[in-house]
């Protein structure tokens, strides 16, 4: 039997808005899967190796639904621009460098190390449009032990010469080559179809990507309704679409239409300005929203109406959106999500109750975990992803409940030195 | 000659919105004061001990204009409430414990250690209403080497039995006793008059504090126009006042009226909802605004219109407002200030240009430093407060300018392990 047991103060969220707390309990992993939480260890698990994390906290791993690997090197710099300017002045010039494989290796090594050290156990990652660089990124991610989706970006218009792909044919052909190159190569690193965003993709390209998705049954990641100017531009480029998301949906790149047969899921980052019709299409097609509050603040995009989406029954997880957002910390994404929702309530709509800590914890674990299957809970049959949190660095004069300690850890969460250990799919990776 | 020289990459802000950069320059300290920045070290300083910080950054110390020491222990917990509820459920019950001197010593030791380790070199601090506990806090702060103002709180109404002082007489008498106890006791720790906020203070108490201020020429700290319900309550309690700030001004607790003779300055935390008349009074009386963006987000208070205040010529510095704000990091206060201003621009008033990184850096150094005299610049005659920032933990594949490295350090600034060394008033305290 391939397994182990860890002991400590276990917390996880089984349903939106509620955190279950199990002080000094046992957590069993067998063959990469969770076998449950026990106050007393059942006899059948008595022979498994046991590690006691004492008074430390054990929580499910956190999923980052949206992060740009090539932007990691300039995170936290040049933060005084809006999206379209920022793409032209920050993101595109840096991404163009990834044509150079040596540069890509150097930069992606830094990214992979940082993500391994972070609270993130699973991530959905943008690369650049470069095939070789993207394969390098996948090699490095595989070495981290994290489970990730990584995408070679498609972009054949509205980007600088050099970064823009030569044609829709070329973009699609490179994508197929990439998919063939990496087929069967990795255990924990998976490809994802990655049209950058609608302004970067011609109709021809979208049509070709529709074919690629059909052939390979790929998941999809992209951006949606992030910034007012961007949305206006999309409206001009695609007057035939009912709304921004409809552009993707017309090419089968937007989840599953009713009766759809794709097993690969779709994540759309931002959704700051989705209309009711767009939100309803997101729900109908079972697309997941990657809420990226740090990015939405940093690029002055606005505040996504997450309460409305939850009330409508949409799936929502969290994304760091490095480097639109300045930090890879999903703990900070959690607290930014609460803070942004409070401003939305105060400044936009007092009927939209602010998000609670319990709700954003659910989004960071179970919410985003859905993209990877049964991920984010400590329940029988879920993949075993866990973080061990050491908060000894933060002494306190009074008693704190485990719930308070977790909340405090998240709110002080810029500092990753408290991630004592990290398990992904049943393996200790840190 | 009592002095020393440090060498490194020096950055500081001489005027709002501009950061001066001096790569690998010398910075000279003599008798606690800055003697300037030099590309080549002048002969007269050649005999001073020199420490070379190599590629690290040297910036002025950061000032925290508003922090509650007794709330430090519960920072980052119970964040899902608004101000008045939060006071009743979080702040007041914890503060009541400080009647116990042992508890105060235990809790304040944790606070003092944390502040010493932080980026803060100067702070304006709320204690509780307890005289003994406040003296204990001042003893501990003196040991840190930081320069601080510390206040025994006055509150004789609208607070729970036990925390509320028995009467205006008692509150004032305790304050005078406290001032006499600590007179001449400290070199770096100074008293500040601290009426909690208008709802906690009877007219009788304010009248007595007016007398105390006159006798001792004290600086003043309090709260102003933080939350809509609070402001409504103040309106009911003081119908005779023109606006919230006028309540303080009627009792000489609001800076200096024209021709006023106080040398002790006044800081007012928050000013989220100051009317034009209130803002104009703040300006006229030379009161400084302690902008506390993390707290204003966490307690869902709103966003202070800092651009308007700057345009009107008000003085503005930054405050952590622990534990309304979750973190003592003034780097995080800086980036929250930028982020909040972007949301104000996007959601409230598109004529209010977002704050830039350069502007909030000025606020955190020169802006808040004003409260302590000539503090916050590396110019001749300024007190020598400096931070040495080590960003080696954040490798990057490309060249970054010093300006970019500083901005990135701030945006990733939840982590204080990068504060390599810290000087306050010419002494190395860390």
Q: Give the radius of gyration of chain A.
A: 21 Å
Low-pLDDT parts of chain A are: none
Give, in spatial order, the strands making up the sheet with the most strands of chain A.
Answer: 3-2-1-4-15-16-17
Distance between the termini of chain A: 23 Å
Biggest sheet of chain A, open or closed, and with what strands and sense?
A: 7 strands, mixed
Observed structural traits:
homodimer; 430 residues; alpha/beta; seven-stranded mixed sheet; four-stranded parallel sheet; 23% strand; globular
Please summarize what this structure is.
Chain A is of the alpha/beta class. Chain A has helices at residues 83-96, 101-117, 131-144, 168-182, 203-216, 228-237, 244-249, 276-284, 293-298, 306-312, 330-347, 357-369, 402-411, and strands at residues 3-15, 18-30, 33-38, 50-60, 62-68, 120-126, 147-151, 153-154, 189-191, 194-195, 220-224, 266-270, 288-291, 315-318, 386-389, 419-424, 427-428.
């Amino acid at each position: 039997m391939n397994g182990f047991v860890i002991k400590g103060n276990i917390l996880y969220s089984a349903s939106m808005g509620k955190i279950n707390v199990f002080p000094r309990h046992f957590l069993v992993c067998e063959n990469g899967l969770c076998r449950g939480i026990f106050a007393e260890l059942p006899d059948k698990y008595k022979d498994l190796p046991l590690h006691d994390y004492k008074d430390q906290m054990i929580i499910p791993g956190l999923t980052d639904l949206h992060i740009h690997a090539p932007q990691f090197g300039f995170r936290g710099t040049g933060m005084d621009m809006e999206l379209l300017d920022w793409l032209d002045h920050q993101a595109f010039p840096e991404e163009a460098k990834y044509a150079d494989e040596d540069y890509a290796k150097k930069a992606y090594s830094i990214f992979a190390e940082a993500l391994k050290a972070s609270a993130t156990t699973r991530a959905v990652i943008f690369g650049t449009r470069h095939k070789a660089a993207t394969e390098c990124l996948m090699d490095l991610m595989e070495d981290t032990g994290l489970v990730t989706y990584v995408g070679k970006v498609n972009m054949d218009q509205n980007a600088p010469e050099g970064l823009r792909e030569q044609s829709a044919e070329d973009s699609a052909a490179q994508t197929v080559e990439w998919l063939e190159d990496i087929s069967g190569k990795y255990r924990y690193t998976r490809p994802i179809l990655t049209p950058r965003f609608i302004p970067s993709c011609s109709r021809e390209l979208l049509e070709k990507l529709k074919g690629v998705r059909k052939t390979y049954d790929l998941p999809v990641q992209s951006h949606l309704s992030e910034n007012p100017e961007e949305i206006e531009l999309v409206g001009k480029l695609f007057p035939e679409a009912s709304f921004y998301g409809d552009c993707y949906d017309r090419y089968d790149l937007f989840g599953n239409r009713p009766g759809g047969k794709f097993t690969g899921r779709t994540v759309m980052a931002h959704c700051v300005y989705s209309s009711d019709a767009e939100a309803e299409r997101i729900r109908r097609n079972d697309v997941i929203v990657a809420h990226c509050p740090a990015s939405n603040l940093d690029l002055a995009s606005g505040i996504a109406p997450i309460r409305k989406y939850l009330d409508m029954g949409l799936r929502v997880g969290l994304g760091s959106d490095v480097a639109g957002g300045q930090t890879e910390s999903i703990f900070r994404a959690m607290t930014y999500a609460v803070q942004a929702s409070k401003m939305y309530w105060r400044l936009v709509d007092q009927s939209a109750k602010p998000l609670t800590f319990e709700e954003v914890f659910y989004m960071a674990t179970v919410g985003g975990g859905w993209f990877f299957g049964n991920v984010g809970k400590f329940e029988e049959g879920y993949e075993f992803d866990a973080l061990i949190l050491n908060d000894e660095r933060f002494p306190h004069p009074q008693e704190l409940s485990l719930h308070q300690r977790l909340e405090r850890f998240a709110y002080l969460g810029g500092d990753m030195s408290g991630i004592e250990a990290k398990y992904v799919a049943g393996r200790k990776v840190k």
